[in-house]
Amino acid sequence: MGNPRVTRARGEEPKQQIQPGSRCLLVVEGNDECVLAKRVGLPQGTTVLDLGGMDDGTKLEQYATVVGLDPSFFALTSVGVVVDAEGDAAFALKHAQAFLARLGYPVPTGPGEIAKEASRTGGIFILPDGKSPGALETLQRQAVGAERAACVDALFACTGRPPAWNHAQRDKAWIRAYAATVDARARGDQLYGPAPKLDTRHAAFTAFREWLGRL
Fold first, then answer.
1. Is residue 92 within 8 Å of residue 135, measured between CB atoms?
2. Which of 24, 53, 89, 152 could be disulfide-bonded to 85 (CB atoms 3.0-4.6 Å)?
3. What pLDDT score was predicted for residue 190?
4. What's the pTM?
C-alpha cells in the first residue's frame, strides 16, 4: 500500500502539503479518519491531508485554494474527501462537492461515489453511510461485539444523556466510554486491533474500504 504521508492543514498560507510523487490526495476531517484510512488500506502513492475539523463547512472549501497552490497538486490524478455527516449528510455532501469543484476535479453526484473525467478521479465519502446523521464513531459502534455493546448501552441508560445531544455527539461519547473499558490508551490507532478492540475487517467498514480501493 506504500507509505502514506499525513499532514495537518494550518493557517491560510500556501505551503507544501502534498508529498512529491503522490498520485492521490485524501482530504479527511480529522485524525481519527486518518487512522481508519491507513488501517483499512490506502491506494499506493497517497498523501492524507487532515483538516483538523470541518467547522461549518466553509473551512473545507477555503482549503481548496491552499491545496490548488501546492507545488505537487498538478501531479495528482485522484482526490477524495472524507467528512462526517454530523447532523446533516446533505450539508456535508454539498461542501465536499464544492471542494472538488474548486479544484477542477470531477464531482460525484452522491456520497460513496467516484466520478471520472479524462485522467482525473474525484470521490466523496460521508460518514457513516452517506445519508444518516452521525460520524465515524457511528461506524465504530457497529464493529463492537454485542455483549460489550450491551454493557455500554446499560451505562448510558443508567446515567442518561444531555437532551441536546445529536447523533454524532451521542456516538462519540459512546465510543469514548467503550474505549475506556478496553484500554486507557485506546484512542486513535490504539483503538484498532484484536478483540475487544475494533477489527477493521468488520463489515461496518466494508463500504469505506471498497470506496478507497476505487479512488
1. no
2. 89
3. 79
4. 0.87
Q: Classify the phi-psi angles of 93: left when phi > 0, otherwise alpha if psi is within -120 to 50, otherwise beta.
A: alpha
* 197: confidence class by pLDDT, cuts 50, 70, 90: confident
Q: How many CB atoms lie within 10 A of CB 173?
A: 16
The dihedral sign for the CA sequence 69, 72, 75, 80: negative
Q: State mean pLDDT over 169-187.
A: 83
Residue 171: its H or E element:
helix 167-182
46: helix, strand or coil = strand
| Amino acid in position 201 | R
List pLDDT tens digits, range 103-149: 999 999 999 999 999 999 999 999 999 999 999 999 999 999 899 89
Q: Which domains does the chain have, with CATH numbers?
A: 5-132+204-214 (3.40.1360), 136-198 (no CATH)
Q: In the numeric block, which cell numbers belong to residue 146?
A: 454485542
| Burial class (CB within 10 angstroms; exposed 0-12, middle 13-18, buried 19+) of 182 | middle
